[in-house]
Amino acid sequence: MQANMFKRSVVALAVAGAFATGVVVADRVGVDTATAAPGPNVATTAPAPAMGAMAALPDFANLVAKHGPAVVHISVTQDGEKAATRGGRGGRGMPDPGEMFPNFPGFPGQQAPDNGPTQGVGSGFIVTADGVILTNAHVVANADEVTVRLTDQREFKAKVLGSDKLTDVAVLKIDAKDLPVVKIGNPQTTRVGEWVVAIGAPFGLDNTVTSGIISAKSRALPGDAAVSFIQTDAAVNPGNSGGPLFNLNGEVIGINSQIFSRSGGFQGLAFAIPIDVAMNVKDQIQQHGKVEHGRLGVTIQEVNPALAETFGLKKPGGALVSSVQRDGAAAKAGLEPGDVILTFDGKAIGRSVELPPQVAAVKPGAKVTLEIWRDGKAKELTATVGSFEEKTTLAGGKDLAAKGRLGVAVRPLSPEEKKAGELTGGVVVEEVAGAAAKAGVRAGDVIVSVNSVPVKSPEQLRELVGKANKSIALLVQRDDARIFIPVTIG
């Protein structure tokens, strides 16, 4: 979905699989409202509000009647060759059936044996009365023709004004006037547990309505670091892609985009792109004809309790920098592997997944202030945000460990390995046991540093481990990605 030196992001290592589009209906069970009668010596007071009354199921009929007409059915026609390479979000191909997170570009139609035209469907919603429509970028990817059908059965040929693969948002335009439009809400004010309604065309069934609750906010998915998704249990299925997610005020708070699934169908986990992200994309496309995203040029990972203790933080938090790209914005600002980014442009980073969307939302060229944690104390840096499209190469090398307290046998990197990896140091793990194996170190890992001190040789590694206290932080390069591994060595 995005150009990246790495074959996989460090953030994505914590999540198994890939994702797909859809929404699911959840059964709701009422709360028992029976209360015990007061005893003879108990003073009678005004009864507390019954839980059942507060938890009464909402009626969605008025919401759907008022805002449903602004939800549209989108059909896409492609020639056979394009359909074969279209794939899911961000240009990725359709996954194997065994994948946990399949991507649905819509509900595909029959493909002719001679690779003739194919059709797919998705959903969208009207945001301006003169025919501007939002949907998913993967719904209209590589389309030869896009047709929009309204609830009154009128059909229009749509023009794709632009699409942004990074956020999976596309903007369409149809030639019409006085159209019904949705109300735009504020996803930042939503709360976990609130009711939501999804409207779309699952499997081509126009204006299908499903409901659920917000299950979580700020979810980061593999390959989608630029978006913090709204997770819901509202039923979404192939064809719901691009449709709106409403709150009970009838305001759109997200675009239904993906589902978690082992089977390819809905399994109770759906993900929506926050509407403020989508509206920013729309505004950039309409005003400038393209979308720009900020780029810092770092690989980050979560700070768990063990790493927080190792780096001297009072509690886990922030985004731990595991590698810095050569000549990128972070490198120019002075960021180093081992730094923990605590705030970005004045906003606290509670978890590492919160950083990428904030960076992506910044206009390239803008100056931002970073508060980082380095060598046991806070420090402030100023960075000029780069562009997501700029090509950068990863600076640095690979890391390894040695036997003894750590439990590894290591060897120096060969000249060929150093040249291939553009490395100046590090050691390769050949055997692993004990503390290192328990922490997750693997044979083939390259240990780059110990507690932020670069490792040049097996002897230096042994010396650094010998001087350490009960825990150390190894910076390890694995499969072109770098991660910190906390190791308790006793």
Structure in words:
16% of the residues lie in helices and 33% in strands. With 490 residues, the chain is α+β, with helices and mostly antiparallel strands. β5 and β6 form a beta hairpin. The two termini are 43 Å apart. The chain has three domains: 1-27 and 58-288, Thrombin, subunit H (Beta Barrel), CATH 2.40.10.120; 294-393, PDZ domain (Pdz3 Domain, Roll); 396-488, PDZ domain (Pdz3 Domain, Roll). The model is unreliable at 1-46, 81-114 and 390-403 (pLDDT under 50). Strands 17, 18, 19, 20, 21, 22 and 24 form a seven-stranded antiparallel sheet that branches.
Index terms:
alpha+beta, single chain, six-stranded antiparallel beta barrel, Thrombin, subunit H, 3 domains, 490 residues, elongated
Task: Tell me the layout of helices and strands.
Blueprint: E1 23-24, H1 51-54, H2 61-67, E2 71-78, H3 80-86, E3 118-126, E4 132-135, H4 137-140, E5 145-149, E6 155-164, E7 169-173, E8 183-184, E9 195-200, E10 208-219, E11 229-232, E12 235-236, E13 244-246, E14 251-259, E15 270-274, H5 275-288, E16 294-295, E17 298-302, H6 305-311, E18 319-326, H7 329-333, E19 340-344, E20 347-348, H8 355-360, E21 367-374, E22 377-384, E23 386-387, E24 393-394, E25 408-412, H9 415-421, E26 427-432, H10 434-439, E27 446-450, E28 453-454, H11 458-467, E29 471-478, E30 481-488
Parallel strand pairs: 8-14
Antiparallel strand pairs: 1-12, 2-3, 2-5, 3-4, 4-7, 5-6, 6-7, 9-10, 9-13, 10-11, 11-15, 13-14, 14-15, 16-23, 17-18, 18-19, 18-24, 19-20, 19-21, 21-22, 25-26, 26-27, 27-28, 27-29, 29-30
